[in-house]
Write a structure and sequence with these properties.
The protein is of the alpha+beta class and about 290 residues long. Helices cover about 20% and strands about 30% of the residues.
Length: about 290
């Protein structure tokens, strides 16, 4: 983290160096349109076909057909959820929080897409509605639905506190994913990845740049809604931190369940859906060998 009291004096041209204007690393104006208006129109004709209740301090998995919508809903009280996404038929293709962050920013909302990892790099899902979009950024520089934090995990907890805690989101997702696919937990753990922190309110400390969190503004009835661009397997953990106002990786917080709803626009609409193609880049070595 950055030192509050630096050890070195600033050079004579420090202000000039610091006043250089930044540029956006990855301008996204060349990306294909997200068709948000059309997706919202299709959503109005959809009907709920299934749902999954994720119990507190546990995780669950559910399949989502491409061309369908899915909602993560707050149902009983303020609760944060950690979301993983995989290609249903090839779990090596999974959500890439880092590149999603680089493209859309630290916190996601309506119109943003969840991108898959290399070498696939394509949209897995598009956010079509967010009842917390009013929150924007608060006076502390924090906002909701971040792609900053990786997920609470037992390894970091052990390192920091010396305690063994078995209901971290990493552990919850590992158990749920392994059980759903009926694979060994050791293999399952290798496919758990950095999450979208649904409803979590986070940011960075202005002084040190440390990752900070505060009580989530989510309330029962709030939801984050997505459109599935490919056939998905979703894993969601109801974080042991509850609303993440005090601590996670413990049984201290009051926790509540989360609900995942699947909405189907109908066969005709689903057949019109065009699945995004896998990234067309070829490594130079492949080009030389072809």
């Amino acid at each position: 983290m950055k030192l509050i009291n630096p050890e070195h004096a600033p050079p004579s041209d420090a202000q000039k160096r610091k006043s250089e204007k930044p540029v956006v690393c990855y301008p996204i104006n060349s990306l294909p349109d997200n068709n948000l208006k059309a997706l919202k129109a299709v959503k109005k004709k959809s009907r709920k076909v299934s749902e999954l209740v994720v119990n507190p301090r546990q995780a669950g998995c559910i399949e989502i057909p491409k061309g369908c919508f899915f909602k993560i809903v707050s149902v009983e009280g303020p609760q944060v959820g950690d979301l993983n996404l995989w290609n249903l038929y090839d779990q090596n293709e999974k959500f890439f929080a880092g590149k999603t962050r680089a493209l859309h920013g630290t916190h996601l909302s309506t119109g943003d897409r969840l991108w898959s990892n290399f070498p696939y790099l394509r949209p897995m899902a598009t956010i079509v509605d967010d009842t917390l979009d009013w929150y924007k950024f608060d006076e502390f520089g924090t906002s909701v639905h971040d792609v900053i934090g990786t997920r609470c995990d037992p390894y970091t907890e052990k390192m920091l506190s010396g305690l063994d805690y078995h209901h971290c989101c990493h552990s919850n997702l590992t158990k749920a994913f392994g059980s759903y696919l009926k694979i060994d937990k050791t293999l399952a753990e290798t496919l758990i990845h950095d999450v979208l922190n649904v409803f979590m309110c986070t940011g960075f400390s202005g002084e040190t740049g440390q990752y900070i969190m505060k009580a989530s503004p989510v309330r029962p009835g709030d939801f984050l809604e997505f459109y599935a661009e490919i056939d998905l397997l979703a894993g969601l953990s109801a974080c042991p931190g509850g609303d993440c106002s005090v601590k996670h990786s413990s049984d201290i917080a009051q926790c509540y369940p989360l609900l995942i709803e699947i909405w189907d626009p109908g066969e005709v609409a689903r057949k019109k859906h065009i699945e995004p193609e896998v990234n067309s880049y070829q490594h130079e070595i492949k080009k030389k060998c072809s």
